[in-house]
Write a structure and sequence with these properties.
The complex is a heterodimer of chains A (about 350) and B (about 425). Chain A has 12 helices and 14 strands. With about 350 residues, chain A is α/β, with parallel strands linked by helices. The model of chain A has no long low-confidence stretch (mean pLDDT about 100). With about 425 residues, chain B is α/β, with parallel strands linked by helices. Helices cover about 35% and strands about 5% of the residues of chain B. The radius of gyration of chain B is 22 Å and the shape is globular. At the A-B interface, helix 3, helix 4 and helix 5 of A face helix 6 and helix 7 of B.
Chain lengths: ~350, ~425
């Protein structure tokens, strides 16, 4: 066991898999010699060679497409798209090719590509370095979508993703790369050093790709969330003085409906929270699922706390972001309904 | 200032009612273009992208340094495969017209592309075809019955009913599944070729796009990545002059040939007479040998003509002269190879008539067998349960639930 940041945990997942499986290839912009702009692949090219950890031209569409080709040829590419905001040139290759290769060829062809990409705001990145586009990918048939919230899960889920024969879109909220964020921007940043999920096994282990995690048990309400907002929700519930059951969805597609259903049936109240925009966001699917599965147990309408339906603004970051206070307000409002 | 920017809208040389005009095509004389060593530097052989490699002359005699010196058996087999492709197309086109299949696309007039190039590649080489490369599927033993069953979406459909007609696959013989999204397979082929080099193998990849889809970003990704990593890949542009109703100038073919697209990246380009099977074979052999021996990618432009409609949903009489194909200066690839074989004393018109009849019979018999496995309207049908399979390696719960729901609605149980 070591104390790791999320960056170190992701690097460790690469290291374990590059060592374990000679077909694993890391591929992306700046990931080789330099080790990635966020350092997630630091030292790996030096260790595994430039045929295993490969710097790519700045062409996301070309990166995804050639990774698909590598995968068809029996390799297991782990692609880094430098920012989720830059994934769109690769979108056609993901939607029309990667996601549907197995289906259209009746299982003859598949390409086990994992696409890692840093997402989310809270780092003063403006509208081109802050987006949370997970809902665009969960809407597809044929890719699995993950968003991680801590170092332990990041390593275990990334190893599962690399080993999976299905294509995986793997979102890493960059705000929590170096430490959890409780949603109060006025407090000093903290590191993963004292967080229990910063304790990460050095070797191989996996976290399953279809299981949510209950990160806090509680009885007053259920908060269903993922990524950075897991930590914001924990802090907000504590401050609001409620006993909240907090679920980290982790794998957004396929969704672990059972865990959510059991929790909301128990608490009778549910809040869905994410950084991404609200309209047709992933939260809408969560709300619909809770409504269908838990209708007769609900004591209040399911509420949502999300980013606003605007592009991500640079100057108004903390007015846009679902900060701690917005979650606290949402919790109070939800608890008031009788 | 009297001079102003003026928007240029490319105009086809001839539209319905006009006399066909192919004066825009730069044609070299057969046998006149030099054949460099496969080790030549791209910068030293730029002429190959601008001139037109031709072997068969107007008298059907093989000329010059690109003559691949193919033996009689290879030439007659190439002729047989082209005639078979045309017979298959003819049958399937008519079956669409009779409502037996929903859609079809012929390769009429461009059969030498698939057959001439396909003869060069090894079975271990990976092909990433476009939708007019049915000749490649035929020659790499996909099986006419299997291909017909795919077009019929019947109980033996290799795609389990998930794809429109003509989107074949044949993994066993390294034929990739066809995508309806244009040019997406081009950079995938480069990735596959990179993988081959990473693994230390000498298998190469090949892919095809049309003149129209060279405008797609994927075409340019493919060239960039192939150049950056020196990928062992043969990239081919089938320039059949028409992308549905837009002529090749609308894709940017007016200023420079498509073969020249790679020159800026240091990728050699070869412009070849796509209806001259000998020339097609020769330039592909050059590119394949170069790739296999570590020389990297080549971009080949095959100049040909789309003899038929874009697809059965298209009516070319609305946008091009009716008799344009007849005026195409590079003729018909089957006629040209036939006349060459006759000239060599290896073939006769009688043998040709016999071959055409034999291929027609082969196709008719295959069709009879194919429809015995069902059609869209006659059983046996595909099991609707298959709709939910192969989305993922293992079916997740939500799909199992949806499958159960559909089966319940249909009064079936899972």
């Amino acid at each position: 066991m070591s104390q790791m940041s999320m960056i170190q945990a992701i690097r460790s997942a690469h290291d374990v898999m590059l060592d374990k499986d000679p077909s694993v290839i890391a591929f992306g912009q700046d990931i080789g010699y330099f080790g990635g702009v966020f350092r997630c692949t630091d030292g790996l090219q030096q260790k595994y060679g430039e045929h295993r950890v490969i710097d790519a031209p700045i062409a996301e569409g070309g990166i995804v497409a050639t990774a698909i080709g590598l995968g068809i040829n029996g390799l297991r590419p782990v692609v880094e798209i430098q920012f989720a905001d830059y994934i769109y040139p690769g979108f056609d290759q993901i939607v029309s090719e990667l996601a549907r290769l197995r289906y259209r060829s009746s299982g003859e062809f598949f390409s086990p590509v994992t696409i890692r990409t840093p997402c989310g705001g809270g780092i003063r990145g403006g509208q081109t370095h802050s987006q949370s586009p997970e809902g665009i990918f969960t809407h597809l048939s044929g890719v699995k979508t993950v968003m991680v919230s801590n170092p332990y899960d990041a390593k275990g889920l990334l190893i599962s993703a690399i080993e999976s024969d299905d294509p995986i879109i793997f979102f890493e909220p960059k705000r929590i790369y170096n430490g959890p964020f409780n949603g109060d921007p006025d407090q000093p940043a903290v590191s993963w050093a004292t967080h229990p999920k910063g304790e990460v096994p050095d070797g191989y282990y996996t976290v399953p790709l279809d299981k949510a995690e209950i990160v806090e048990t509680g009885s007053d309400l259920t908060i269903v969330t993922y990524g950075t907002i897991v930590h914001v929700a924990q802090a907000a519930a504590k401050k609001a003085g409620v006993s909240a059951e907090i679920i980290d969805v982790r794998t957004l597609m396929p969704l672990d409906v059972d865990t959510i259903r059991d929790s909301v049936n128990k608490t009778g109240r549910a809040m869905v929270a994410h950084e991404a925009t609200r309209f047709c966001g992933y939260g809408a699917e969560l709300v619909a699922t809770i409504q269908k599965e838990c209708f007769w147990h609900l004591e209040a309408p399911v509420s949502r706390v999300t980013g606003w339906d605007t592009p991500y603004p640079h100057a108004f970051e903390w007015q846009y972001f679902p900060v701690q206070q917005r979650l606290i307000d949402g919790i109070h409002k939800l608890m008031e309904i009788r | 200032m009297t001079k102003k920017p003026k928007l240029h809208i490319p105009k086809a040389a001839a539209r319905p009612g006009d006399t066909p005009d192919f004066s825009y095509l730069n044609l070299s004389k057969a046998g006149t273009v030099e054949r460099p060593s496969i080790e030549a530097r791209a910068a030293d052989i730029e002429y190959l992208a601008l001139e037109l490699v031709r072997v068969l002359d107007d008298d059907h005699v093989a000329q010059g340094p690109w003559n691949p010196q193919l033996d009689k058996d290879t030439l007659t087999e190439a002729l047989r495969l082209m005639v078979l492709t045309r017979a298959y197309d003819d049958r399937m086109h008519r079956m669409q017209r009779q409502g037996k299949i929903t859609f079809y696309m012929q390769a009429l007039g461009e059969e030498a592309v698939s057959i001439g190039q396909g003869l060069v590649f090894e079975l271990e080489d990976m092909m990433f075809p476009a939708y007019r490369n049915q000749g490649l599927y035929i020659m790499r033993d996909t099986g006419l019955v299997n291909m017909m069953c795919q077009c019929l979406s019947n109980s033996r459909d290799m795609c389990k009913g998930r794809q429109m007609p003509v989107f074949y696959q044949n993994k066993k013989n390294n034929m990739f599944t066809i995508s309806g999204n244009l040019a997406t397979q081009f950079p995938q082929a480069v990735g596959w070729a990179m993988g081959s080099a990473i693994k230390g193998e000498d298998h190469i990849a090949a892919s095809w796009v049309g003149d129209g889809s060279t405008a797609e970003a994927d075409f340019h990704y493919a060239l960039t990545f192939a150049a950056v990593y020196n990928a062992p890949v043969v990239l081919n542009v089938t320039n059949n002059q028409w992308a549905i109703s837009t002529f090749q100038g609308t894709a940017g073919g007016e200023r420079r040939p498509f073969a020249a697209r790679g020159l800026g990246l240091g990728i050699p380009g070869i412009r070849v007479d796509g209806n001259d099977l000998l020339a097609v074979y020769a330039v592909t052999r050059w590119a394949a040998d170069r790739a296999r021996s570590g020389g990297g990618p080549t971009l080949i432009e095959l100049v040909t003509y789309r003899g038929g409609a874009h697809s059965t949903s298209d009516d070319p009489s609305r946008y091009r002269p009716k008799d344009e194909w007849k005026a195409f200066p590079l003729g018909d690839p089957i006629e040209r190879l036939k006349k060459h074989l006759i000239k060599l004393g290896h073939w006769s018109e009688d043998q040709q008539t016999g071959l055409e009849l034999e291929m027609k019979t082969t196709v008719t018999e295959a069709w009879k067998e194919a429809i015995s496995h069902g059609t869209m309207t006659e059983p046996p049908f595909l099991d609707v349960k298959l709709m939910f399979e192969d989305v993922f390696a293992e079916m997740p719960d939500h799909l199992k639930k949806q499958q159960d729901k559909l089966l319940k609605m249909r009064g079936e149980s899972s």
